[in-house]
Amino acid sequence: MPVIVASDLDRTLIYSAAALALTMPDARAPRLLCVEVHESKPLSYMTETAARLLTDLGDAALFVPTTTRTRKQYQRINLPGPAPAYAICANGGHLLVDGVSDGDWHARVLARLADECAPLSEVQEHLLRTADPVWVRKHRVAEDLFAYLVVERELLPEEWVKELGEWAENRGWTVSLQGRKIYAVPKPLTKSAAMREVVRRTGADLTLAAGDSLLDADLLLAADRSWRPGHGELADDDWTGPAVRALPERGVLAGERILRELLHTVRAPR
Questions:
Q1: Chain-wide mean pLDDT for the chain?
Q2: What are the residues whose beta carbons fall under 8 Å from the beta carbon of 99, sequence distance 6 or more?
Q3: Which residues, 6+ apart, have CB-to-CB distance to 242 below 8 Å?
């Protein structure tokens, strides 16, 4: 039976320059590998050691990249190791099989969203009406499934985020603040549901997961064992779960530690 490793990407395995958290002297900083280029500029990195670990992990287990990114944003990433047979995009809205979205899965997701939560148009209208242009830089819709704002974080009122969360809760949506982005996501749109579909298709008997944000919490709880870094929404709230290990490392070195833990667990006798 295969082992499934479903891991978030941004600020879990890969890091922008702003998120690297390199606190050591420059001469002792780890060598970095660029794994994403956007508009001809390097955008995301992992350490070279992490890249080797991910390659080994891809050989030893079924590695499933699991991200809130759209398919287009995910496809910019060039991860080391074998090409993933499965990938989860748009927070579970799209299940890619050999790089192509599975139409049956997407149709099931759309049907559930229609049944269980307020429509995206209502959320879009609320964001446009209540978000102040003083601190909003961009309004975006991802894959016609959820919405997010790009904001000036230092100008963002905490009270507005709290009020948005309460408003969304009553309509079957959830809110997550990650760096300069505020996500509004339907509650039924989850990474864990897509991971369970991969388990059903593959017959895996062990699931491992990693993630750093509120949108990863359901994934971490659904896996048999999981890890979170010492940064991010979950760390800020001191969040944990029965099979969740909270690691102390922050930044790009946390990504390296997570991969080391995942590979060690995959290779351990069961």
A1: 97
A2: 75, 83, 87
A3: none
